[in-house]
Amino acid sequence: MTEAPPRLTSLAHGGGCGCKLAPSVLQQLLAEQAEPSPFRQLLVGTETGDDAAVWQIDDATCVIATTDFFMPMVDDPYDFGRIAAANALSDVYAMGGRPIMALAMVGMPIEKLPTHTVREILKGGRDICASAGIPVAGGHSIDSPEPIYGLAVTGICRPADIRRNSGARPGDALILTKGLGVGIYSAAVKKQALSPDGYEKMIASTTLLNRIGAELAQDPDVHAMTDVTGFGLLGHALEMARGSACELVIRDRDIPVFAQAPSLAKQGFVTGASRRNWASYGDAVRQYEGMADWRRDLLTDPQTSGGLLIACEPGSASALVETIVASGYPSARLIGCVKRGRPAVAIET
């Protein structure tokens, strides 16, 4: 009898965007690299931890460049490829652009995985790119002790359509376009404790492209955007707060979450990245009295291919949410506001 191939998640010490370095570690590594750029055309670099780099070609065109890769958070190779590709493309959409091509980055333990498994991972990534209307035009591969897959993505946009994570203004409303709980669900997947319906809902969310970002960027009432990934909602909200020199207020009761996420979090299905996230930035977050630990774990939960966090003109917020929902993002909600104050995040009930 042929021995069954190992579960993908069993070959990795982490999975999805939970593999990211903790915010505090990344901050130390980049401490000497956030100086003002001498390159006039580099409109967005590392200065505010934004989603992608932006280089202006001429008065009408900017190039957006990003790269994103990680280890598997699910065992199905095709789903892993799709999630990783959607997550990488999200960085371009979050900047207000549209992708034009991708390059694959592949690291596989060739002696442990059959060829057809790796092919399915690549097929998943290629199919997501096809749904975005772009090719996987090449790439690079290595023999790796753990399975790794992702994309380097190139996109374009008009200079006026660039949306940074640092453009939020006092008085703005905050919108989140997808529910939270991806990391919690993936922790349950690893222990084979997630229901089939829960898995289906997770895949539907993580393979849903954030292409709405390119449309929203054409609206002058949309001031800032970022995608919510490995640092959790609180971490990426804090990056927006710091970049914009404002306080972000988030209403806990309005945050969309996956249906099973609260019960799973209470049972302890929490990733190590969630706790590392809180240890990195918890001193800049003000919780409401009596906030449960499991709830905080949900707000620091690393999201893989998560939604967009959007700061917009308050008078347009309700209409924008309606537009986002009608465009195929049923979980989109108004979740808070931007206030004057020191750069921090406050959680209200």
List how many beta strands DSSP finds.
13
Q: Write out the strand line-up for the largest beta sheet, numbering strands in chain order.
A: 8-11-7-12-9-13-10
User: What is the radius of gyration computed over CA atoms, rounded to a whole number of angstroms?
Assistant: 19 Å
Terminal CA distance:
57 Å
What is the helical fraction, as a range of percent?
25-40%
Please give the largest β-sheet: 7 strands, mixed
Low-confidence stretches: none
Shape: globular
- Portion in strands: 15-25%
**Contiguous helical run count:** 11
* Helical/strand content category: alpha+beta
Order of helices and strands: HEEEHEHEEEHHHEHEHHEHEHEE
The mean pLDDT is 95
Describe the overall structure.
- The chain is an alpha+beta fold.
- 32% of the residues lie in helices and 23% in strands.
- The chain contains 11 helices and 13 strands.
- Helix 2 runs parallel beside helix 3 (115-131).
- The N and C termini lie far apart (57 Å).
Which descriptors apply to this entry?
six-stranded mixed beta sheet; alpha+beta; 349 residues
Summarize the topology.
Blueprint: H1 23-29, E1 42-44, E2 53-56, E3 62-70, H2 77-94, E4 98-108, H3 115-131, E5 136-143, E6 148-157, E7 173-176, H4 182-190, H5 196-206, H6 212-216, E8 222-227, H7 232-244, E9 247-251, H8 261-266, H9 272-281, E10 285-286, H10 293-299, E11 308-312, H11 317-326, E12 333-339, E13 344-348
Parallel strand pairs: 4-5, 9-13, 10-13
Antiparallel strand pairs: 1-2, 2-3, 3-6, 4-6, 7-11, 7-12, 8-11, 9-12
